[in-house]
Specification:
Blueprint (H helix, E strand, L loop, with lengths): L5 E7 L2 E6 L2 E6 L11 H4 L4 E4 L5 E4 L7 E5 L2 E5 L14 H16 L5 E5 L5 H8 L3 E6 L2 H13 L7 E5 L2 H11 L5 E4 L4 E3 L5 E3 H14 L7 E6 L6 H11 L6 E9 L8 E10 L7
Parallel strand pairs: 3-4, 8-9, 8-11, 9-10, 11-14
Antiparallel strand pairs: 1-2, 2-3, 4-5, 6-7, 12-13, 14-16, 15-16
Helix pairs in contact: 2-3, 5-6
Length: 289
Amino acid sequence: MSKQNYELIDSGKGQKIERFGPYCLIRPCAQAVWQPNLSAQEWSKADAIFSRDQENKWTYLKPLPERWQITVADIVFKISPTDFGHLGIFPEQKSSWEWIQQILSPMARQKNQPRVLNLFAYSGGSTLAAARAGAAVCHLDASKGMVAWARENAALNNLEKAPIRWIVEDVRKFLMRERKRGSRYEGIILDPPSFGRGSKGELFKIEEEIVALLEDCRELLSDRPLFILFSCHTPGFSPLVMHHLLSGTMKGRGGRVESGEMVLNGKEKVLEVPSGTFARWVGDSTCCI
């Protein structure tokens, strides 16, 4: 595997060690309750460790740059350690980024540019996957800093002139305005947090908001919809829960719902690590593309 890519190296005892390009980082991983496969000596070769034991803190065992780049699913990402232990990428979304490109490309090849809405869009992985496939994308996140990061990633991928709308806004307020405007999309992507605040401090709790949020998404689909891709990292939101939520939302619209776990993976014999869940509704119109 290229050193410019991502790789899960090992996991266990509540931690995971991952390679982001040339650097190996250890971060917490609550799901990894098993024993590590590699020795403590191998883990000691890491470049940095993030801990939440007493306070969020990076311990740098070797010098690291403030930022570097990696490529995942043919998308270039800026990587930079944050105070929360995040790095600007959720690599468990790799299969989703590949799927987005696969499902959008046929429509784009027919010169019928699909419109895609990406909510809670973070650093833009799904946005850039859709743009690479020829879609016109609306990228929305409540964090001004993350939207700026996503725009940097677009530039790294030579997509700074792609048809992408960059919006800093509370999701529910934006969806309400889009419904009033009569906006429509062929594809909608959402990865809502368990808890968060909008651009003006609006409170979001997924258990209280998700049904109405998904209903808003349904209403914004065009007459020839391709998909809704719904992913989640909230404990208790199992693939079955996700399947029920999306099936209930899309009742009467035909199509099919698929669901499963997102995972981090590495080379052969490296134990996969569950890292959230997904459900995706695929419209009947995809059969005609």
